[in-house]
Structures are given as structure tokens and as C-alpha cells.
Design goal:
cytoplasm (chains A, B), Rna Polymerase Sigma Factor, Chain: A, acyltransferase (chains A, B), 12 strands, globular, Rossmann fold, HAT_MetX-like (chains A, B), Serine O-succinyltransferase (chains A, B), 11 helices, two-stranded antiparallel sheet, homodimer, homoserine O-acetyltransferase activity (chains A, B), alpha/beta, 34% helix, eight-stranded mixed beta sheet
Amino acid sequence: MTEFIPEGSRFHALSSPFPMKRGGQLHGARIAYETWGTLAADAGNAILIVTGLSPDAHAASHAGNPAPGWWEPMLGPGKPIDTERWFVVCVNSLGSCKGSTGPASPDPASGQPYRLSFPELSVEDIANAAAEVVRALGIGQLACLIGNSMGGMTALALLLHHPGIARAHINISGSAQALPFSIAIRSLQREAIRLDPAWNDGTYDEAHYPESGMRMARKLGVITYRSALEWDGRFGRVRLDSEQNGDDPFGLEFQVESYLEGHARRFVRNFDPNCYLYLGRAMDWFDLAEYGGGEAIAGLAKIRVQRALAIGANTDILFPVEQQQQIADGLRAGGAQTQFIGMDSPQGHDAFLVDYDRYGPAVRGFLDTLPPH
Amino acid sequence: MTEFIPEGSRFHALSSPFPMKRGGQLHGARIAYETWGTLAADAGNAILIVTGLSPDAHAASHAGNPAPGWWEPMLGPGKPIDTERWFVVCVNSLGSCKGSTGPASPDPASGQPYRLSFPELSVEDIANAAAEVVRALGIGQLACLIGNSMGGMTALALLLHHPGIARAHINISGSAQALPFSIAIRSLQREAIRLDPAWNDGTYDEAHYPESGMRMARKLGVITYRSALEWDGRFGRVRLDSEQNGDDPFGLEFQVESYLEGHARRFVRNFDPNCYLYLGRAMDWFDLAEYGGGEAIAGLAKIRVQRALAIGANTDILFPVEQQQQIADGLRAGGAQTQFIGMDSPQGHDAFLVDYDRYGPAVRGFLDTLPPH
């Protein structure tokens, strides 16, 4: 079991015991986070970023860790999320393996990794843990809460269950409930991992690691994170050099196959398989309709936030843009002054990690209109 | 190695040797086919149907096999493809395992199944084999050639390489070339099969069968054959009875997961894994741009057919509707009187197998306008 903790991470010790929504509790758990900029004396300039399934808290470089972060072009001095104005916090999700407590972390009761003995994880637990970090940093109310992808779910849970935690909200490629296409994809990813004999009911180690299962799961993820349109332009039918192909009639032949292989290779040993299972299932379970009498839109309307921006990509097949439109509609019904932007980005669900020409100005424009604290 | 031959199949012995596009040749190979209706004295009322990846030649029930076929609502007396007017032939593709020769068939040289010694299969080979059946039945020119999905590729190859083989053509959910998203999906399906230790480089048997790999491959296929929109309405977030779920935290929980499982279970032992690999790769390789100086549209424009109808579903993510629009545009550039219909069917790539309210009238309407022979 490996945890992958960025340099310069800071940690918040969660309240202990930390109760979990679906039952059970954690003892001695922690959340890894990083910060940028300076918190104002009145703590009024704080932004929290909650992430998608796989990122760590290292959203951008800083003095404690100069390596580029996963949202480097968006976050820093003079950038769309301008750290000369804002104090920014990014948390690694509870249940992940990037410094926060999750299935790969040692269970203090035994000293051994939790593995499948980790309690069932829900998006609400991830949100509750993030809320503790906000409070611990002395932030009474966030100026803005930003969530991408799974983080869009986490942000909605945060807003609903911690009323007043933020004045404004940006939801990017998010969703108020998991729908069956995305559940099917994640179910198949989990099946790939669980079918790998090396997964061994979660008791793998570095020498016996479910590499094939993770590779399949990651490739399937990448396929659904992008779009056919982008790939037509990017890869077309370009083939690899014949020498890469070799004699295997079913080996890699097209550039798109090699691209997937490269993505998978970079991922499989850098994310814990059990954490992947837990976080994917948490997304499947997420459903704001639970709080809205069976209607997601009614659950959204229970959220109180002053201003909101929902952004989606028209090419997203995993969290279709109708889901971000629904978030905007629901938050508006709850009283927020709300804007929705459907981006013509070709990059699908991942557009917010690629299409900075569109996402940068949209996020900057919204933040610029927030009143001075 | 198992072949799955419908009752009442007829067989055509291919010319021997039968040369394959990418090298090698087959000896003593055959094509399974079925027919409906009566061939006119002038043989002018013939329709050929070429199929998608998995179907057999049993498109509909007939006296020799009363079981419903895979296109039962479309084909029969008074139905959209009216067998009181038309003599209809459906062939099982070369390389399949439903009666035609393929990797699961015995190699006459050894008496053992070909397995991976089967020569590389191309869509053009499938088309050439189908053309032989047409000629052997005494049909000089088809009144109409109908191809669905992979069969849409086969049909285009037939028209291009056998000029004059058909007066009219209906291309449903077809494509003039494989694009990277669909290549990626099929590549991942093949990887799932090949990673299954029981695949064993193609030398499995009934007792040691790559069941898990085939299950993964089929589930991934079904996910891409339908659409998120359809599943939202059909499954939503409905859960299974808790007793089906059991205690496994990663077991089946949502209806959509059970639906995929059911589809997979019905498929995995009814289609030969090696044939699946060969047919998928044949689709990846298919590219009419080879015949059009690098442009698919120019390849299409080399086809000579009098009238054509291209139909697609707006929700198809595997063969997007732009590909059927391209087929219409290219055939029109080649001189055909051409119609394109983008259907608002929610069922995605598989809509032609489900949405008979839309596809029935479209096919019937086109066939009704064909001149009497």
C-alpha cells in the first residue's frame, strides 16, 4: 500500500472519532492540504478548491513545492484565481491516497493499512472533512468554493450540509447526482480492478499489484474524460511506427492506442487501487435527490449561496452538460444569482484541465465580480 | 472452440483458395446465409443484408427456423423489408463464428481450429465473400444492399470493389472509416480478452475459457451501443433488491449494473473470443480514405450506386451521426440520388435494433420508392 504525498503538504487532524455517513467512524484521520496567498485579517478572501477523483492537493506550485500543479495555469499571482487577491486552499479528498486518510492509510487500531476495512465512503464524508479544514484555518465563510468533476459533487454537499460556508460557488463539470451511464463506466472500472487476480480482495502489495486491472480502469476513464471530436482532430487514424507495433497482430498500432497506454502507465502505480474503488463508489452513491424528496433539482434548491457559476463542456459524455445546467437551475431556484456557461470545448469532461483559453477567463470573470470582502 | 450455427442455415463454398486482402488465403472456406421470399425470374428483386459484428445470418424467422431473428420486426411478409416483394439474403460475416469460416473453424490443413493462425481479416474480405454468395445465387445486381454498423462498412466495400453489385443502398449506423474513439473502445475490448489468463494466446477451450475478459469486453460494448439519455430514462438510479446486492461493497447495486451483467452473461459463451478479436480489428483497419487519396469522402465518391439512404442516430457515440452524413455526402458526390436521416432515437448506435417506430418507416419508405424491377 502506498500513499503519494506531495512535498510541502500540510495536514489537518480530523476530529476523532470522525463519523462516516454510511456508518462507522475514523480515528486519528487527517486531511492533506496546500495553500497559496495570504489570508486577510478578516479571513474574507478565502477560496477552497475540492478536486476530482485522482488529483492531490497540489493544484499549483508554491514556495514549499515548486513543481507545477495539476491546475497550474489557473492558480497563482495574476492568474485567473489570483493569489495576490485570494487566499486559496486545496484539499486532498478523504479516501484518497495523496496524504489524506483513505483505504491505503494505516488503521491506527492495527497499524496495518485499512484496505477494505475502511468504512464505506460517501461524497458527504469528503465534504465534511473539507469543512473541518476550512474551520481550522479560521475561515468563517469562504468567499468562493470551487469544485471540479467529483469536486463539483463535494462542493454541493458542502454547501448543503454546511449552510453559510461560502458566499459564492463555481461548479465545473459537476453533477447533482450520478446517472446510469457514468455509474456503468465506473462499475466496469471497478470490475477490471477486482477481476485482476493480483487485486486479491484488496490485499495486494508492490510486488503483487493489480497492474492490468488498473491499466484497464484508467484507459476506460481516459476514454470517457475526453471526446471523440477532440481525438478525430488530434489522432485521426495516424499509426505508430511499425517498430513499436511489433509482430503482435493485436498489439498497439494506432496513435490513440499508444496515447491510452501512456496515460495508463503513468497512473497505475501512482494511485492506490482500493482508493480508486472507494472513491468511484462514492460518486455512484451521490444523489442530491435524497435531500429533495426524490428530485435532484429540489435538493439543489435547498442550497443557500449568494452567487454561483456552473460550467460544463458540451462534449462531456461522463457528466453531460445538462447536469451543469441543472445545477445552475437548482441553485437559482434556491435564490442564488446564477450563471451557466456551456463551453464549446472539444476536450470533453477534462476540458477544465486543458482548455484554459476558455476556462481561465470564465473563472476570472466570475471572481472579478465578487464584492470586496 | 465453438461455432454457433443457427438451424436452417445454408452454406456457400467460397472459391478456394480465397485470397485475403492483407495476405494469406483460405482453403475450403464457407459462408452461412439465410433467405426469405422468392427470387424473381429475372433475379431483380434481391436484397442483401450484411450485419454488425455479432449477429448471425438469422435476421428473421422462416420455415427452416421459426425462432425470431435479430431483425424480426423489420423483415417478413408485409414488414418494412417486405418478403412478399423482395427476395432477401442475409450472410454471416467471414471471420465470424455463426456458420461462416473464421478463427473458430477448423483449418483443413490441420483439422484443428485456426485460432490465431487465421489470416488477418479485413472488412474487404468480408465483402468479397458476401459478393460470392450474391453471384452464386444467380443475382446479377441487387435491388438494394443494406448494411448496419460494421455491415455499413462491409456494404461500402462491396459497392466500391464490386461495381454494379447493387442499384440502391441503405447504410444504417455505418462508417466510411474507423475513428479514434471507436478504435480506442475496441482496443480496450481486445485488451480485456487478451489480459484474461484463460485466453492463453487464443488456445482456450470450453473448460478454460476467457469468461472474465469476454464479460468486460461485452459490457464495454453495450455501454457504447446505447446512450446516456436512454439509460437516464430507463434505469435512472434505481437499485436492485438488497438481496441481489449481497454483502459485497463493490457488488452489483444499481439496475444499470445488473442490465450490463445480464447482457454479458448471454454473450460470453455465445461468441468466440478469437473471432471477436479479428472482427474488431477488421473494423479498426477499415478506411475508405485508402481509395480516395487519403480522404474518406473521396473514397466514397468513387462508389457508383443509383440511390442511397444513410441513417444514423443523433445519440450514437460509437459511429457518430456525422459519419452517416459523410456517407450520404460522399455517395451523392459519386452521383447517387441520396437521402440522409439523422434519427432522434435515444438508443444510440443500437437504435436500428430497437426503435422500429422510426427505422421501420424509413426503410420501408425508401424501398417503396425503388422502381419495379
